[in-house]
Amino acid sequence: MISASKLKSVDFYRKIPRDLTEASLSGAGLSIIAAFCMMFLFGMELNNYLTVSTSTSVIVDQSTDGDFLRMDFNISFPALSCEFASVDVKDVLGTNRLNITKTVRKFSIDSSLRSTGAEFHSGPVANAVRHDDEVEEESVEGSFPLTEQNFDKYVHQFPLTIINFYVPWCSWCQRLKPSWERAAKIMRERYDPEMDGRILVTKVDCTREGDLCRRKHIQGYPSIRIFRKGTDL
């Protein structure tokens, strides 16, 4: 039989005798100081954990056009025409990028912010018309004819109505007619009166609508009047 004293001799975790663990004032002071240090360090770590820090850095952007950040926005301008709406970009380094509209979709809207037509595609107007252009081909009827019966209806319906008061026998009216009809056709294709509803280019034959021309005080031909919401004042 192995005695108990021999078993105790292989104890790796021997205890200090009780008489060697006697408390002292110096030990108490060191314990208090250590406790305060631990509490201070814990408070500093907790404060650092709860503190929000903001850092600013400048990085040179070497990305290509396809790597730019995509931004989605929806802005309505009821009184601004689509062809004048553009987007410019300026970064923090002062680099300007003007008219970034390749991926911007634009639609015409009314005063109630409802879409009034198909998507607007910007670009130069083909076959721009000048008043002194000589047109050899037969002109296409592009302007809308107004009469005594429908005059007030249309000039009040459209915010902008452009009217050519003419007579067929006038040489100046004949010279104006090809360019006028071509311009009216372009405006009708670009601003569809049924879908867009902003502008209408028309004409009035004063030999047929004499009373209407006299009521509008037409004294020379051709006379071009611009009516805004029913009035040309």
TrEMBL record:
Q: Does the keyword Ribonucleoprotein apply?
A: no
What Gene3D superfamilies does the annotation carry? Glutaredoxin
Give the species this sequence originates from. Answer: Stylosanthes scabra
User: What broad taxonomic lineage does this protein's source fall under?
Assistant: Eukaryota, Viridiplantae, Streptophyta, Embryophyta, Tracheophyta
Instruction: State the protein's name.
Output: Protein disulfide-isomerase 5-4
Q: Which keywords accompany this UniProt record?
A: Membrane, Transmembrane, Transmembrane helix
- Residue stretches spanning the membrane: 20-44
Q: Which Pfam families match?
A: ERGIC_N, Thioredoxin
Q: Which residues form the Thioredoxin domain?
A: 126-233
The record, for InterPro entries, names:
Erv, Erv_N, Thioredoxin-like_sf, Thioredoxin_domain
